[in-house]
Amino acid sequence: MSSVAARLKPSWLDDYDRAYLSKDVVAGATLAAVAIPEVLGYTSIAQTPLATGLYTIIFPTIVFALLCSSRMLVVGADSATAALMAAGLLGLSSVNLTPYSKEWVAYASMVALVTAVLLFLARVLKLGFLGDFLSASVLIGFLTGVGIQVLTGQIPDMLGVPKGTGRWIQQQWSWISDLGAVQWETFAFAAATVVCIVGFKRFAPRVPGALIAVVVLTVISSLTDAKKSGVAVVGDVPSGFPPIGLPSDLSINAVFSVLGISFSCLILIIAQSAATSRSFAMKHGDKVDINRDIAGLSGANLAAGLTGTFVVNGSPTKTEILEEQHGRSQVANLTMALIALVFTVFFTSSLADMPKAVLASIVFLIGVGLIDALGLKAIYRKRPLEFWVALATCVVVFTIGVEQGIILAMVVSLLDIIRRQYLPNSFVIGETREGIPTYIEAGSGAQSEPGLVVFRYDAELFYANANRFVDDVQEVVEGAPDPVRWVILDATSVTDLDYSAWNSLKGLGDYLHARDIHFGLARVDPSLRSTLDTYGYPKHFDPAMIFGTLEQAIAAFRSSSVP
What we know:
The chain is mostly helical.
């Protein structure tokens, strides 16, 4: 029994210093002050009732804290996954859902439940590496696109004009063409919110500007009866304990209909949460178990689906706030969850007179924060090709859709891996008189020394690049300044050979032997050696031509050249 308890105990508790307790509690209270208005704003992205935003930082946060390995990662509503879920539900052809409706919330909860199952399977199968298939540049482009979509979606509520319909460009044209109907009292609340949040962030960053804006402007709205002047307010927000149970409209057909949305959420959650968890852990010399965190994220989304809210994710912005407040463990997040629970049960009625423009402005600034202009600029300077890929991903997200953007991001990242393997660098390696290796770009005119070519191919050999590899070696052999007598493949980057690559390697050996050229391999690791034995390497090549090091291979060539 004690061993079971030890396995279930959060790993971050193993060496928890009680001296951190007071700091964690204070950090958690501050985090709650920032997170509560923030998650209320996320509901405008998820298109769910306000209370559902509060639910995302109660039981999902508690469950994650009890299951995870990360000390710092904060889990709750997130703009990217909220946008992805909402876009997916709007695109469902099998059912006509109305945002904010009871049925919409049921499907949103179902997305969280299916995502939880997929995350559990990812944990069991140790698929944490899936998150690595979104490159940093593509992820920057994706989140920037989400930021543009999010902030532009809030502008009508900030101006007090009707929201447009249709594609992104049509929606923007709708409010631009309606600027003459701006509701100036609404805009005043929006402007005051932006000034308050930006001002406190600039001059007093430890003060929760969003909370100050919500409290002060809600009081002003109530005292001036702003809704009589045409200012839209949020209205009654139900108080009480989050509802517990399965979504009311759960069915097998509905589960399958949201599977694609949940899979997209899975990839984004793993990629974003893993990157956030790792980066903050490394700052403090900690190590995280990504697969255990995936189990925690699975539990968090299960809790979300069973408490009437939408999919949750690791939040980079809230985690950064936790660090700024010197929080050092999940105790801070548990504190935030308890404060959110108390607020949800007893104090949501105080939100009734809050102008919608205040929430819209909070989300607008969240969108601005997602736009990583500096990151895109750095990519452009250092990797222009990756910049254009990131930019294309960004544009697809806000012009076509978030779900299409995540699919494009995955496809582009995988294509980039294939491109790197198909078009790797290749060199001819030589030695200076002092024995220092030299690397010459492989091509006509290159040789290691008269009669010898040591060829380095910086990629695995597989069906897609094997013929190209053979062509590159042949080009070097045929264009060498002196007749080639030995060709040595530096197999440092080759750990395996599929059947196509083996046939190509065997064909290269036949080509070289027909020209009386000896062919060998150097720096063969045990995995590759085992693969070669499986294919019957000694039947086709001289086993004596496998060398442990390049120095041994070059020395053997020189010895063979001695008269």
